[in-house]
Design a protein that fits this description.
The protein is of the alpha/beta class. It contains 9 helices and 10 strands. The protein has a 6-stranded mixed sheet with strand order 6-7-8-3-9-10, sandwiched between helices. The protein has a 4-stranded antiparallel sheet with strand order 2-1-4-5, covered by helices on one side. The structure holds adenosine-5'-diphosphate and magnesium ion (MG).
C-alpha cells in the first residue's frame, strides 16, 4: 500500500528524516511511536505530500507520488488524514463538513453523499449532530466527526497524527474505541500515538523513531516486552 525508499527530509539545515525505508501492507495497522521532534509527523505528512521530501521515493497504491507529474490529487483522495486538532470547517454544519469533499473532489451526487454521511455518523455515534456546527461539540465528538469525514472519501489508507493528544482525558477512550472498531474493518491504518496500551492492542506492527531514523520495527509483543535498543528502553520506561 505504501512503499518508502531512502526518504530524506530537511528543513533548512535541520535533517528531520534520514534514510527512511518502509513498507506498509494492505490491511496493516502500523503504529509509530517515539519522542517529540523525532520526525513522526513529518514522515506521515510526506505520505500524502503535505511535505515534499528532499530526496527518496514514496509509492502509494502503486503510484509513485514523488515522481515528476504524478497525479497527486488522485492519490491524495486515497489517503485520509486525521489530525491532532480535528481541523473541521468551523463555518459548516457537521453534515456539510461530511459531504463537502466527496461532492467537490469526487463528484458524488448530493443525495448519495448525504446518505453515506448519515451512515458514517451513525458508525461514530453522532448522527444526531448532523445539523449543528462544530463549536457545539466536545473535543471527543469533533474528533469522531473528523474520522467519519475522512472515511467519507473512501480512502485506501488512513493516517492519524496523535488523534487524542489534544483531548481532555475523559474523552480519549471514546475516540480510541472508534479507531479500534475501524481497525477491525481491515482498512490500512498508520497511527502516531503516545497511548501505549492502545498501541499494544491495535497495532500489527510498531515502528519506533528517534532522532530522524527508524530505530526499531517489530510486532507489538516483541517491541513492548523485549525492546532491542537502549533508546527504545529509555523511551518506554518513561511512558509506561
Ligand atoms: P514529531 O512529530 O515526532 O514530534 P516532527 O516531524 O513534527 O516530529 O518534527 C521533527 C523536527 O522537524 C522538529 O525539530 C520540528 O521542529 C521540525 N519541523 C517540523 N516541521 C517543520 C517546518 N515546517 N519547518 C521547520 N522545522 C520543522
Ligand atoms: Mg508530531
Amino acid at each position: 500500500m505504501i512503499h518508502m525508499e531512502h526518504l530524506y527530509k530537511s528543513f533548512g539545515d535541520l535533517e528531520v528524516l534520514k534514510d527512511i525505508s518502509l513498507d506498509v501492507q494492505k490491511g496493516e495497522v502500523l503504529v509509530i511511536i517515539g519522542p517529540s521532534g523525532s520526525g513522526k509527523s513529518t514522515m506521515l505528512r510526506c505520505m500524502n505530500l503535505l511535505e515534499t521530501p528532499t530526496s527518496g521515493s514514496i509509492t502509494v497504491c502503486g503510484t509513485e507520488i514523488t515522481a515528476k507529474g504524478a497525479p497527486i490529487r488522485e492519490v491524495r483522495q486515497k489517503v485520509g488524514m486525521v489530525f491532532q486538532h480535528f481541523n473541521l470547517f468551523e463555518h459548516m454544519t457537521i453534515m456539510k463538513n461530511m459531504i463537502y469533499a466527496p461532492m467537490k473532489t469526487k463528484k458524488i451526487p448530493k443525495a448519495d453523499a448525504i446518505a453515506r454521511a448519515h451512515e458514517l455518523l451513525n458508525r461514530v455515534g453522532l448522527d444526531d449532530k448532523a445539523d449543528v456546527y462544530p463549536i457545539t461539540l466536545s473535543g471527543g465528538q469533533k474528533q469522531r466527526v473528523a474520522i467519519a469525514r475522512a472515511l467519507a472519501m473512501d480512502p485506501e489508507v488512513i493516517l492519524f497524527d496523535e488523534p487524542t493528544s489534544a483531548l481532555d482525558p475523559e474523552m480519549v477512550s471514546e475516540v480510541l474505541d472508534v479507531i479500534k472498531e475501524l481497525a477491525k474493518t481491515g482498512i490500512t491504518m498508520i497511527l502516531v500515538t503516545h497511548e501505549m496500551g492502545f498501541a499494544k492492542e491495535v497495532a500489527d506492527r510498531i515502528i519506533f523513531m528517534d532522532e530522524s531514523v527508524i530505530v526499531e520495527d517489530a510486532p507489538p509483543e516483541e517491541f513492548f516486552n523485549h525492546p532491542k535498543s537502549d533508546r527504545a528502553k529509555k523511551f518506554l520506561s518513561k511512558m509506561l
